[in-house]
């Protein structure tokens, strides 16, 4: 295999053109229905939000309306519902994060005993929490707070707690709050770190983050050869609210003829950068004498942090 490197950079848009990642009005790639499983990656921002909204709401329905029983001597403590959602963000501005969060969470098709459940969204800063009240049009069913300003009243009122774009410096607080609201469901939405950063989390923090089941994730990638480039995605979408129902992680790559995305590999567990890199190099080696590089566009909400490009 030729020597090469992996580039990590932010994915500013879910609009995947046939030549490069752009934030312009370039079209999404087409998908081959014969190559997809029960789910296919979205062809537009609206479809991505709808897919994530459907996946999250159907997954939340059961634990929300059938709360876990109180542990006793005869009944073992059951696992708290913890879910994770990752959706592409348009750019690295706070406004884009606020709008995306509102699009996903404002009108979730959920009911709790015939009424809308109360959702508490915890933001990484007080400025974002204040702006969220405007972005969400002061919804009575959605509360907003930053970590420092969180009150017991807000925490006790919430039926669901959502952590929106939390930073690594807030992990201990995130874990503490998650424990406090147990057995109520919690959602980790677009964390500000990349999935591969989690291998550096130590001890109980690593186990804690791993306890969140990914119900929706969509991540773009690009394979660059000497004479060609090819686009693709890493994708998972839980169907029918069954997290343990065998929904695989799909690696799909754009075909040279027709531009359709075809599944090239499936994983039961989330593949890291090195695993995806090997899959793509093997794929390109079959059609290209030399693979120059693989550009891996990391989890989209991380663009909120404005991190720098990393070369390996």
TrEMBL record:
- For bias type Low complexity, the affected ranges are 27-44
| Residues covered by region (Disordered) | 27-47
In what residue span(s) does the DUF1995 domain sit?
42-277
Q: A Pfam family name for this chain?
A: DUF1995
One Gene Ontology cellular component annotation held by this UniProt entry: chloroplast
* Protein's UniProt name: LOW QUALITY PROTEIN: uncharacterized protein LOC120267483
């Amino acid at each position: 295999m030729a020597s090469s490197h992996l580039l990590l950079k932010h994915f500013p848009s879910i609009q995947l053109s046939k030549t490069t990642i752009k934030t312009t009005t370039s079209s999404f790639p087409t998908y081959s229905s014969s190559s997809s499983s029960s789910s296919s990656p979205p062809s537009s921002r609206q479809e991505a939000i709808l897919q994530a909204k459907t996946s999250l709401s159907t997954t939340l329905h059961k634990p929300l309306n059938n709360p876990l029983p109180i542990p006793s001597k005869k009944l073992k403590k059951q696992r708290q519902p913890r879910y994770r959602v990752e959706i592409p963000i348009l750019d690295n501005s706070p406004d884009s994060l606020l709008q995306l969060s509102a699009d996903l969470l404002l009108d979730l098709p959920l009911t709790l005993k015939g009424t809308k459940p109360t959702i508490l969204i915890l933001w990484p800063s007080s400025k974002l929490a204040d702006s969220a009240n405007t972005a969400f049009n002061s919804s009575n069913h959605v509360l907003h707070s930053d970590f420092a300003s969180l009150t017991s009243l807000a925490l006790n009122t919430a039926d669901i707690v959502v952590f929106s774009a939390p930073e690594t410096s807030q992990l201990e607080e995130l874990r503490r709050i998650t424990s406090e609201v147990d057995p109520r469901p919690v959602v980790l939405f677009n964390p500000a770190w990349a999935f591969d950063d989690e291998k550096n989390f130590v001890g109980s923090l690593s186990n804690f983050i791993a306890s969140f089941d990914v119900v929706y994730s969509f991540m773009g990638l690009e394979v660059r050869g000497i004479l060609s480039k090819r686009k693709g995605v890493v994708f998972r979408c839980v169907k029918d609210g069954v997290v343990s129902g065998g929904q695989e992680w799909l690696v799909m790559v754009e075909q040279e003829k027709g531009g359709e995305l075809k599944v090239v590999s499936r994983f039961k567990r989330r593949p890291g950068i090195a695993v995806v890199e090997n899959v793509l190099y093997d794929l390109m080696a079959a059609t290209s004498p030399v693979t120059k590089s693989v550009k891996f566009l990391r989890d989209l909400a991380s663009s909120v942090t404005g991190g720098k490009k990393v070369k390996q």
